[in-house]
Write a structure and sequence with these properties.
Structural class: mainly alpha
Number of helices: 5
Strand content: 5-15%
Strand order of the largest sheet: 1-3-2
Radius of gyration: 19 Å
Order of helices and strands: HHEHHEEH
Mean pLDDT: 92
Helix content: 55-70%
Largest sheet: 3 strands, antiparallel
Length: 122
């Protein structure tokens, strides 16, 4: 069995790692953007439609931060007018399982809440 000091160190390392992750993925929008791009590359306008509720200014900011962190790539397309497409990087794909886990938990949580609400009505 691990000693108490080793458990405390493990906890500290876990908290530090989670803090680092939340620094990169924190906020309301980044995980949603990554989840969309895990399925297919998208143009800016497509992301603006898919990520419901995000403003254009906020989407631009979040895309820049994700690009700086190496999670997505920005590609200027040779179209008229010029459009920009974003795609997940190989490194960004390492987050796909995380987005799926979050989605699964969200579905289970929603089902639980709805079940509890139905039971309260009875």
């Amino acid at each position: 069995m691990k000693s108490e000091s080793i458990l405390i160190e493990d906890c500290s390392q876990t908290v530090l790692a989670i803090n680092d992750t939340m620094e990169i993925l924190g906020g309301k929008w980044k995980v949603l953007i990554i989840a969309c791009l895990c399925y297919q590359p998208m143009r800016y306008s497509e992301l603006l439609k898919k990520v419901q509720g995000i403003s254009g200014k906020m989407l631009s900011r979040e895309l820049k931060e994700l690009e700086v962190n190496g999670l997505i790539e920005r590609n200027v397309l040779a179209t008229s007018p010029v459009s920009v497409a974003y795609k997940i990087t190989k490194y960004g794909k390492s987050l796909k399982q995380l987005t799926q886990t979050i989605a699964e938990w969200g579905l289970q949580h929603r089902a639980r809440i709805l079940k509890d609400m139905r039971q309260e009505k009875v």
